[in-house]
Amino acid sequence: MTAPSWNLSIAYQDLNDAKITQDIELIQQCIQVLNQHVDRRDLTAVMQNAIQTKEAAGKLLATINTFAQCHASIDAINPGAKSLIGKLAKLSSQLSQAYTPYQDTLANAPLEYIQEVLDHDSGDVYGQAFLIACDRKIADTKLSVAEEQLLAAMQVDGRDAWSRMYDNITGSLQITLDDGQTIGFSQAASLLYGTDFEKQQSAWRGIQEAMATHQESFAAILNALAGWRLSEYQKRSSQYSVHFLDPSLHQSRILPDTLDAMMETTLAHRDIGQKAGRLMAKVHGLEQMQPWNHMAGMPSLDGDAEQTYTFDAAIEVIKQAFSEVDQEMADFVDLMVENGWIDAEPTPNRRLGAYCTKFAATRTPLVFMTWGGSRSDLMTLAHELGHAFHNWVMRDMPLCQTRYPMTLAETASIFAENIVRDSLLAKAQTREQKLEMLWEELSSAYALLVNIPVRYQFEKRFYQQRQEGELSAEQLCQLMDETWREWYGDSMSESDPYFWASKLHFSISEVSFYNYPYLFGYLFSKGVYAQRESKGSRFYPDYVQLLRDTGSMMAEDVVERHLAMDLTQADFWRQSLQMVEDKVSQFEALLAQGE
Question: What predicted TM-score, i.e. pTM, was given to this entire model?
Answer without folding.
Answer: 0.88
